[in-house]
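Appendix B, example 12.
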Amino acid sequence: MKDGSLAPAFDVAAHDGSRVALADHAGRYVLVWFFPEADTPHCTIEGNGFRDRFRDFEARNVTVFGASFDAPDKNRAFAEKFGFPFKLLTFDKAADVFGVEDPADPGWPKRISFLIGPDGRIVKIFDPVDHTTHPAQVLAEL
């Protein structure tokens, strides 16, 4: 995938028991930020950054989703522990539609994000990602 590509369609489980499909968010920007593992130090810093800037994303018509290969229950505990106002999605590592599995650490996703436009095309792929500055970096791109 590259900037300008059609984003892969997905329909996955969210931490709150719902299902999330990209098609349900047509007409809005969608940010899918992948993190390696729920409730680990760097993932927490990055998640808190998105949480703390959540209203800024909403004001710019952006739906934010965290994403990992973690089970929904693990993501639920992570989201509840830190009060994340956005959904954490569980992608199946065996059917990795975004191609985010880390070749250096198989079985885990890379720290990477996809900003998808209202038309379903990828506006920008953020790779690599600095967990301390990434939320501000995405906002600066909007």
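DSSP finds four helices and seven strands in the chain. The CA atoms of residues 68 and 83 lie 17 Å apart.
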